[in-house]
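Re: duplicated header lines in exported structure tokens

Our pipeline writes sequence and tokens for each protein into one text file. With two proteins the header for the second block appears twice in some exports. Here is an export where it did not happen, for reference. First protein block:
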Amino acid sequence: QFWVKFADSKSAGGVQGLVTPRTMNSIAPSKGLSNEPGQNSCFLNSALQVLWHLDIFRRSFRQLTTHKCMEDSCIFCALKSIFAQFQFSSERVLPSDALRSALAKTFQDEQRFQLGIMDDAAECFENLLMRIHFHISSESREDICTAKHCIPHQKFAMTLFEQCVCNSCGATSDPLPFIQMVHYISTTSLCKGRYSVRKPSINCGEVLRIRRVLMNSPEIVSIGLVWDSDHSDLAEDVIHSLGTCLRLGDLFYRVTEERARQAELYLVGMVCYYGKHYSTFFFQTKIRKWMYFDDAHVKEKTETEIIIPLHLWL
């Protein structure tokens, strides 16, 4: 799920604005991405559609002109090229081969995202962001990057510290500071409202509650839902737990920045996985309509058409 912060409720349209269409003046039609038999590129195509349709990312990335180029394995160049095709090409379906190839060459030593092999869309999305950081801010470490032009860290990064607390004996772990691009939540925790793990190494060995504190105010919040099994019976509960508006105080144990505490973020996109295949729902803010992207196939969707089939994809 992808949530964005808008300057005001009119920009987002609020909940009402999500279904209020605007004019199509000078708006290029949405384009699909090819995925020929054996390519298994649906995970990358979903991540690409997310990056293109996130207005904050697309506009910021457009302004970047210099980078550390890695030639035929340069993810920055490949992303620039596909974005130019999204904007200017008259074709309704575009190839993502150049980016797929650059991704495979970049992660060849790790044997990840290799050609023809299915991979994880969330991990692909995170790694694309980290490679953009590398191309434009390689002098800064991933965990402490403060470069003003680094889109991943300025727009996506959630600066957190995590601490385990035992409700029984009161023992606490040392705070662990870290940065994440995607915040993962167990569907069981989402439905039952608890975030607990069992770590018997601390004093009494009882169930510990994980407390995560957000220390910044990200413009884009990415949430990954983690299922406890392949055959979970929580699908309907998860759907009922979803909404179109999010406050960061409902997501974390504590939020330190006043701006972050007051912020409202709106749901603009979902990458779904079903039947060993990824597809994407995304809200186009310019026309205020939901679109469905299944590789080369692009369809306009109403809210009802999105909600009803969600139990299949989530």
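Second protein block, exported in the same file:
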Amino acid sequence: MANKGSILMERYELGRLLGQGTFAKVYYARNIRTGQGVAIKVIDKEKVLRVGLMNQIKREISVMRLVRHPNIVHLYEVMATKTKIYFAMEYAKGGELFNKVAKGKLKEDVARKYFQQLINAVDFCHSRGVYHRDLKPENLLLDENENLKISDFGLSALVESKHQDGLLHTTCGTPAYVAPEVISRKGYDGAKADIWSCGVVLFVLLAGYLPFQDSNLMEMYRKIGKAEFKCPSWFPPEARRLLPRMLDPNPSTRITLAKIRGSSWFKRGISIPSNSTIVDETSTDLRNTKDKQEMAVAAAAAWIPKLNAFDIISLYSKFDLSKLFEEPCLKKEAKFTSWKPASAIISKLEDIAKRLKLKVSKRDEGLLRFEDMKEGKKGTLCIDVEIFEVVEAFHLVEVKKSNGDTLEYQQILNEGLRPGLQDIVWTWQDDQQPQQSQDEQPNNQLQQQQRLDNQQQLPEQQQQQQQLKGSPVH
């Protein structure tokens, strides 16, 4: 393994081969510093350049930076040499869900658990403007605790990929799991197509075989187009009612993720709020009682994700590795830091949203979504605000446009959010000096420690960045 690149070898000790495809191999590896087990995806740069798949690799990097969820494989870092690209990812010890299904149908409770985790993760992806487009048991992995992890975002699409008609037009996915509107090549809604694929996955989990099967590909496409399938006798009645609504050949009448999550079969066995949604937007109790509202804010704050060192580096512009892989574009996001508790940040954001007449429609693991009440130039303006805990009592907040017109977003950001947040913001990422109020000055000892840490860490970070800049991905 000595030829695998000095950058990689400095950080990881490579082990056995886990799998391989045409353009990449995946190895088990161990982080030398922490001892953590990871999966290293090694991509042959020359091969992907030769067949024109580099944009797919760039998209996968961009997407995996956007979607951080307990049921999605986590991308720790990306490294590159002149000939290779390396993804250091979360290691899913349990392997592919496909291996379980290949042995036969699953018990109802087991199938429901995997389905719940799949829907929660897909819902989170859609809230970030990401559509997977290749959901199947081979791309669903299991960790050591039998929790599902979505992987392989190589075929995923972003909101920005939509044409002027608001639809996606690239035909992709695996034939048996692909939605009929994708096959027709007339344009499709990425969210609706993912829901169809989730329906096929659910059928496979409960049946042990595919709903649409035929040795003739065109005949299989015909069955998919007309949704010709039959549920086996052992399917529970509630699942029998849910599946035809997911496998509805008409995307405009196909069931939504919200209604799937509201179905009686899906909700069975859930005794606590799901990872994906801490506070349900349809809950009326939380709207009527101030105490319950405060409890809801506190509950949401408890789910704030913590950042590791690579997360912190990648979120700051000076160390943003995405510039190696992404084209520059109009500013659609802003970041600020605060010494206020997460609950105070959430309360402040909700107050500002109310004042600006923005609807707070979701709260997912530190993620708030604001929606404009009126239609804008490019549809409804949606702004995602995600809160991360850097260290105890110190938070980084990312404000990002997920839909709508960028100029409208900039106006709300600069004329509404920035002025309204000034009493809780320590510093905006692009500002030169921190905006400290009298009651939130960090103590001198902490500041001195931060300066010492920065002095120790900067040379190593600059070296990492320089190594990557010396061998950019083309």
